[in-house]
Design a protein that fits this description.
The longest helix has 13 residues. This protein has eleven helices and twelve strands. The strands form two sheets. Strands 1-2-3-4-5-6-7-8-9 form a nine-stranded mixed beta sheet. A three-stranded antiparallel beta sheet has the order 10-11-12, with no helix packed on it. The protein is 27% helix and 18% strand. β10 and β11 form a beta hairpin. It is an alpha/beta fold. The protein binds iron/sulfur cluster. Iron/sulfur cluster binds next to loops.
Length: 344
């Protein structure tokens, strides 16, 4: 964390930044800062600006040309009963415990807050949020997110999880973290030993491309799963990064080999500065349709659009309709099947 890359000169030790990338780093320094871990930078192709790892974290001037992007497309501020708690559903919350990540993804949904001092959570503010959870008995599932909860020290994270465990109605604690991808050495045996004292702990991480499935990342996920923590993956569908069938299939099958369940793939939001990442939903539907029947069912994540009203599953319509007592459906390879299915 201390050795993170913060400017073009440091970045040049890993890649040859194009003029456009260098100008974008300067032009965007006030709007959404640029920080990368040396580990993640080492995964970049030094010569190819189209490298899918590089595209996720190195600024582009295209970020300045997005006429429709919003700062808070999910209206999270309006869903926040206390600072950094987002409640869309009755029984679960996202608790943004800090504003720091190991690096800043250019398409981050919370770019309005990550890396911004205003959103730092002091101990007293964490306590206010804990008090709100304790006073809200419907909350059975707490997602610790941010920012990234694994940026906390083990001691601070344990303090927080222990406090949640002392609330009788909190049944599940989930961690949303990209550190297994961006700084996998953060996942230590000591961390896992601490976490497993507070089960049930679940964890979702965020791999977007097969290049990120390194031996270091596999070791981090292995330590977590051996500690009894189910590890899932949430990707974002990103143009030029993972929006083709071969890449998505390689990502999902690689995750399964690491015993990480491909869980969600999010449609990129109407978020400021991200027009160049968005893929039309119809293309996304075709992509996931093409995976069906061509890999294990549990290797296919649910494609979803997050909205201020909650997640909407985006499914290719394999069910085509009804003909009398039969329903008509399409198989994965386009053949039509009629299943007898009377209504009464
Ligand atoms: S790791 Fe997650 S929260 Fe942090 S910048 Fe990336 S997408 Fe945003």
């Amino acid at each position: 964390m201390q050795q993170r890359i913060r400017g073009p000169a440091e970045l040049a030790q890993f890649i040859r930044p194009t003029d456009e990338e260098a100008r974008a780093i300067a032009a965007l320094s006030e709007r959404f800062r640029f920080v990368i871990t040396p580990y993640y930078a080492s995964l970049m192709d030094p010569e190819d600006p189209e490298c899918p790892v590089r595209k996720q974290v190195v600024p582009r001037l295209a970020e300045l040309a997005d006429p429709v992007g919003l700062a808070d497309p999910l209206d999270e501020v309006a869903h926040s009963p206390v600072k950094n708690v987002v409640r869309v559903y009755r029984d679960r919350i996202a608790f943004c415990v800090n504003n720091e990540c190991a690096l800043y993804c250019r398409y981050c949904l919370r770019k309005r807050m990550v890396g911004d001092e205003e959103w730092t959570m002091k101990r007293a503010e964490l306590q206010i949020a804990l008090d709100w959870i304790r006073a809200t008995p419907e909350i059975r599932d707490v997602l610790l997110t941010g920012g990234d909860p694994l940026v906390f020290s083990d001691e601070r994270l344990e303090w927080l999880i222990r406090a949640l465990r002392e609330i009788p109605h909190v049944e599940i604690v989930r961690l949303g973290t990209r550190l297994p991808v961006t700084l996998p050495m953060r996942v230590t045996p000591q961390l896992c030993e601490m976490l497993q004292r507070y089960h049930p702990i679940w964890l979702n991480t965020h791999f977007n491309h097969p290049k990120e499935l390194t031996p270091e990342a596999a070791r981090a996920c292995d330590l977590l799963t051996r500690a009894g923590i189910p590890v899932g993956n949430q990707s974002v569908l990103l143009a030029g990064v993972n929006d083709d069938v071969a890449t998505m299939k390689a990502l999902c099958e690689g995750l399964v080999r690491m015993r990480v369940r491909p869980y969600y793939v999010y449609q990129a939001q109407l978020l400021e500065g991200t027009a160049h990442f968005r893929v039309p939903i119809e293309r996304g539907l075709e992509l996931f349709r093409a995976l069906r029947g061509r890999t294990s069912g549990f290797a296919i994540p649910q494609y979803v659009l997050d909205t201020p009203y909650g997640k909407v599953p985006l499914d290719y319509p394999f069910l085509k309709g009804r003909e009398g007592d039969t329903v008509v459906m399409e198989s994965f390879d386009g053949r039509i099947w009629r299943e007898l299915n009377p209504l009464d």
